[in-house]
Amino acid sequence: xxxxxxxxxxxxxxGAGVRxxxxxxxxxxxxxxxxxxxVLALFLLGFAGPALLEAADPNAYGTTPMSxxxxxxxxxxxxFGQDVFSQFVHGLRxxxxxxxxxxxxxxxxxxxxxxxxxxxxxxxxxxxxxxTNIVLVIPxxxxxxxxxxxxxxxxxxxxxxxxxxxxxxxxxxxxxAQTFSLxxxxxxxxxxxxxxxxxxxxxxxxxPNMSSYLFMTFILxxxxxxxxxxxxxxxxxxxxxxxxxxLMLQNANQWSAMQLGMWWWFLPPGAGIxxxxxxxxxxxxxxxxxxxPKLRET
Amino acid sequence: xxxxxxxVTKVYKVGxxxxxxxxxxxxxxxxxxxxxxxxxxxxxxxxxxTIGKMILGLxxxxxxxxxVDGAPVKAAKEYYRHVQGVFQDPFSCYNPVFKADxxxxxxxxxxxxxxxxxxxxxxxxxxxxxxxxDPGQVLGRYPHQLSGGQLQRLLIARALLLDIKLLVAxxxxxxxxxxxxxxxxxxxxxxxxxxxxxxxxxHDLSLGNYLAERTVVLRNGAxxxxxxxxxxxxxxxxxxxxxLLAAVPRLNAPWEDAAPTDACRxxxxxxxxxxxxAEAGHFVACARLDGCPP
Lengths: 298, 294
Prior knowledge:
heterodimer, A: mainly alpha, 13 helices, disordered N terminus, B: alpha/beta, eight-stranded mixed sheet, four-stranded antiparallel sheet, 12 strands, disordered C terminus
């Protein structure tokens, strides 16, 4: 009961209280901590790791090819003597950039389209839904082939931009459907009676109701971008310079690492992709408990 | 004359391609004065909630006009300073992810940004006491931790924080138990004393009877009978009103069958829905009044 009296009902303190409360439950949620812990560890490895490594170029050829993991080469070396650990660390960085950029662009477009279409309805909804469906049926791979062939744009940001611009439709449809069902609720009508603008209603009434859903959308888009980028890299449509986890897999496949028993070549990149995407999903399950007050009562 | 509805019509497009139309509200005219409770009675689907929504600017009017103090309904901040609504389902009126007292915070942000937090807190507490709740018990709680009656009364307290002249109460007692219901009705009676106009939308005849000066009976989107509550309830003229009154359960009395339909041709709405003044302040929809039984 004392906690109730201590919480002030008014002023900026109420907003801060909500955030403090979310944080209180966040740091006590095992799933969230474990998921974010793994992602953070890999993130730090990807961004701080390259600076700590001796070899500047992860693709530089070495003198001891095809050697299994050892004290000198933690993850072993490739057919050309390249250090797999160095490639892995550099590849992680590329993977995070592609995931954050591609997932971020897609999430922003999906939210803008989904919220507007769902809340406005009518003609606006018809037009935006049509646009969504058009982008949804565009054969991404074929378009990328054409872009590659004609424009020759093959850098990491360009790849992320392309993935972001083509992977938002399903998320926009999901957000639109959620918004559609939430906007008819009485608390939206009550917010209108409280003089709130449409923007404020979307941002502060509808979006918080689906915050774990929105975060899940971002995680799925983030993971999806990584997977799309990896598959593009794997079939040889990746960036021509640098290294990524997908490119590592492609190289391993190309030089028959599997057949030659060089498990250390393809296992780290595969495990890295799985760990990042999987840990994000686990974190999302935990986030649902943090955002939804009904789920946190024990 | 504060709230004035003049020939208000709401038409929805229905069917696969919006080819057909359905008139939810059909040529409704009545008014609510300051310091008066008017009850709007009708069965489900009679268009009473639609009328409430149109007055609150939540859905546009197809034809006709609704004015408050001579100014048309405008879904804008300044309009809601004077006209507020309380809805039927208190559980749906609160954003489940926020604490219930956030509804007060929204009012402060929109209308009283200059009021200090401490002063606002005092106002909120006194408004909550006005609806006979204990501030310590309801502040800082999530909606699912409060009862329907508490939530409903908090919504009325929310409306009281503004300088309202008109309150649209849409079936506000339908989710409440019998004793809380009387509390809320007494609260409405108090608001009336303060000079507020209240449009009390209900399907429950006995509750409408309890506090309304005037009663409007709605059927299929059109007014069938309206006037002073005493007259409408004491001497119902329209067959539909009689049927409604006959349907009120009474102790130790078997239900009578509804009054028979007679020569009085009650209209289906629209142009035929002209109202005749049967006696002073008592209007009834009848094509030929002289064909009606006295």
